[in-house]
Amino acid sequence: MNHVPLTNLDYVEFYARKLKQNPEIFIQQKKLIESQMKSSKEIFRKKFGKNFKENARKYLRKIGLIE
Questions:
Q1: 2 within a domain of the structure (yes/no)
Q2: Which structural domain, as residue segments, surrounds residue 58?
Q3: Which of 37, 39, 61, 57 is nearest to 48 (CA)?
Q4: Are 19 and 12 in contact (CB under 8 A)?
Q5: How far is Cα of residue 1 from the mean position of the Cα atoms in its chain?
Q6: Comparing 64 with 44, which gets the higher pLDDT?
Q7: Average of per-residue pLDDT across 4-9
Q8: Which of 4, 9, 55, 67 has the maximum number of C-beta atoms within 10 A of its C-beta?
Q9: CA distance 22 to 32
């Protein structure tokens, strides 16, 4: 049996079809993403404080991710 590997586009098309068939999936995914963004925002705010952008840049320079 020849198995053709799925591509990223295959997964996107599959997901789009599922969303079209069941709009509730979109609502669930939207809630999940919004919840993750809120949690991430809180984590970074706690780590870097009020001056988030400046402190985050200092940290990223320190660990070598930006110059």
A1: no
A2: 8-62
A3: 57
A4: no
A5: 36
A6: 64
A7: 86
A8: 55
A9: 16
Phi-psi region of 59 (alpha: psi -120 to 50; beta: other; left: phi over 0): alpha
State the total domains in the chain.
1
Number of residues that make up the chain: 67
Token digits of residue 31 = 């809630």
Q: Report, as an integer, the average pLDDT of 14-35.
A: 91
Which two tokens mark 42?
Answer: 């809180």
Task: Please state the φ and ψ torsions of residue 4, each to the nearest 5 degrees.
Answer: -90, 120
Number of Cβ atoms within 10 Å of the Cβ of 22:
11
Secondary structure (3-state) at 66: coil
Q: Is residue 3 domain-resident?
A: no
39-44: long-range pairs with CB below 8 Å, 24+: none
Structure tokens at 54: 């400046």
